[in-house]
Amino acid sequence: MLMPIKSEFGFGLLTIGCCPGGGGSNIWTLLLHGDLNLSMTMTFISSVAALGMMPLMLFIYGRFFLDTKRIVIPYSQIASQLCYIVVPVVIGMLIKWKWPTFAKRLVKALLRPTAFAFLFIIIGFGGYVNWPIYALLGPYPLLFPAAAALPWTGFLLSALLAFICRRSRAEILTIAIETGIQNIGIAILVLLYSMSQPEGDIGAIMPLVVSFSTPFPLLLVYVAIAIKERRCSKCCWKKTFNKSISKTVEDLEYGEEHKRSILKNESF
Asked: pTM of the full predicted structure?
């Protein structure tokens, strides 16, 4: 009601809100120094809950947009997401148990570069491939603010609630990321199979717009963290440098005094 948009776009927005977490939330948690264990746990729990809660929520609210009997839930897609979470975690736990030193080196060498490459591919190539679709949004100026309001409000409200519950900074970031980022792939499948054409294709534009608008607050947080770390490293370097300089000066002064005392003793 706040933003009057077509029913196809409205159902697309509703479908995204009912989807479980995912879509790179674990990667963003890693880059923003969040709690990766909490992120994986929340993604797993939301995916399991989506097997029952997603059909229920779409049945309750989807009737305002279309016949609920036509709504198709991609259970196989949700189950495959659970496998994508569980299998790598089990393999990682086995490697850490059998070869702990190798696991630490592997994480240090590959994890962050792989995360950067993954996000570059998603944001860069995803934006380039979907650019013709974004160009079609000219007649619908309210789509972008409506799409951006979903993840951005999720970031803000979940972070505020976590802060009120006195969570740590890493946990606040993780909860905000997991709440704001949804699995866009599941939403697109639901829209394509539940709506007749061309309404399904029109509704599927909404998840793409949401995926385009989601990273902006996260990028701002990442830049802020990078600037803070850079300033802290400079301050630490200056403190270390000043300490080393003062220690060197003290050593030189002590050496001069020691020489004077030796010369004084020899004169006597």
From this structure: 0.75
Examine the pLDDT at 92 and tell me if it is beyond 50: yes
Domain assignment present for residue 177? The answer is: yes
Compute the residue count for the chain: 268
Residues 6+ apart with CB under 8 A from 252: none
Q: What CA–CA distance (Å, rounded) separates 76 from 190?
A: 12
Q: What's the pLDDT band for 95 if we cut at 50, 70, 90? A: confident
107-121: average pLDDT: 73
Q: Which domain holds residue 263?
A: 226-268
Other CB atoms within a 10 A radius of the CB of residue 116 amount to: 13
Query: Which string of DSSP letters, residue by residue, matches 214-235?
Result: THHHHHHHHHHHHHHHHHHHHH
Please check whether residues 235 and 261 belong to one and the same domain: yes
Instruction: Give whole-number Cα distances, 255 to 78, 241, 243, in Å.
Output: 73, 21, 18
What is the rounded distance in angstroms from the CA atom of residue 203 to the CA atom of residue 183? Answer: 16
CA atoms within 13 Å, Cβ hemisphere of 101: 0
Residue 221 identity (one-letter amino acid): V
Between CA 162 and CA 157 the distance in angstroms is 9
Dist CA 105 CA 220 (whole Å): 30
> How is residue 24 annotated by DSSP?
S
The Cβ of residue 231 has, within 10 Å, a number of other Cβ atoms equal to: 10
- Is the residue at 2 inside a domain? no
- Whether residue 43 contacts residue 56, with contact meaning beta carbons closer than 8 Å, is answered with no
| Domain shared by 205 and 231, yes or no | no
Nearest to 203 by CA among 13, 3, 2: 13
Q: 16-54 burial, b if ≥16 CB within 10 A, otherwise e?
A: bbbbbbbbbbbbbbbbbebbeebbbebbbebbeebeeeb
